[in-house]
Amino acid sequence: MEANEPIEQEHTNSFLGEVRPDQKGPKNIAIILVLSSLIVAGCAAQDWVQHQGGLTDDQLTTYLSTQNSQEGEPTSIEDFRDFESEVQQSNGFLIRSVGLALTTLCLIIGGVLLYGLKRSGAYLCVTGAGIGLITGVYGSLLIQEAAINHLGEGMLLTYKIWVYLCGTTMSLCLAIAALPLLNVRARLALSQKVILTFDESE
Predict the structure, then answer these.
(1) What is the mean pLDDT of residues 93-106?
(2) Which of 67, 142, 153, 166 has the fewest Cβ atoms nearer than 10 Å?
(3) What's this model's pTM, rounded to 2 decimal places?
(4) pLDDT (tens digit, 9 = 90+) per residue, 127-183?
(5) Residues 99, 155 contacting (CB under 8 angstroms)
(6) d(CA 87, CA 147)
(7) How far apart are CA 74 and CA 50, in angstroms?
């Protein structure tokens, strides 16, 4: 063996035997998370618009005509404006918008780092998904509470579904983000390497 020849050794436990690192898995997950962040960003932008004032009267008339065509008690323009006012006071749309915006940043930055097989990227993605889950569900519950107070049955169902949809989607995102940290082969790919140098003079 020549002097000063580097030997790379991975932080692996002896019980792992011949298990090899899986570099493709974390990279595929990174791509999925970055693409998913675009959808999350769209939801955050929509909530921000709703918090800033929502639909115009013409847009609201068209929207309500579609929603009121369903079975159940109809919702008037005045009822919907009261609903918007209560949500703005409780900051339901704002909480969900800011939370999903933070999630977007974490998923994009973390996804890029994860694609480079950086362990910090996986932790950042998990953090972002956790933020989205908590703020998304909490904000959706505040919006649902206002909907119960002001909207008809047809409209109310829409906002009830949003609570479960947001919770399920962000839980799935959290599970996917955590995979590189839970899977043994993926963890090996994210493990830092130690460079050992041997010098004949020693």
Answers:
(1) 96
(2) 153
(3) 0.79
(4) 999 999 999 999 999 999 999 999 887 788 888 998 999 999 999 999 999 999 998
(5) no
(6) 9
(7) 21
Residues 60-79 pLDDT 10s: 888 788 777 777 777 888 88
Q: Residues for the chain: how many in total?
A: 202
Distance CA 164, CA 158 (A): 11
Q: Measure the CA–CA gap between 93 and 55, rounded to whole angstroms.
A: 14
Q: Minimal CA–CA distance to 34: which of 138, 142, 118, 106? A: 106
Cα–Cα nearest to 104, from 123, 124, 122, 119? 124
165 touches 113 (CB < 8 A): no
DSSP secondary structure letter of residue 116: T
In the block, which residue shows the tokens 């480079």? 116
Angle at the Cα of 9 from the Cα atoms of 113 and 18, rounded to 5 degrees: 95
Beta bridge partners of 7: 196
pLDDT score of 9 more than 50: no
182 burial via Cβ count (<10 Å: 0-12, 13-18, 19+)? exposed
Q: Which residues pair with 8 in a beta bridge?
A: 195
For residue 117 the two structure tokens come to 């097989």
69/64 Cα distance (integer angstroms)? 8
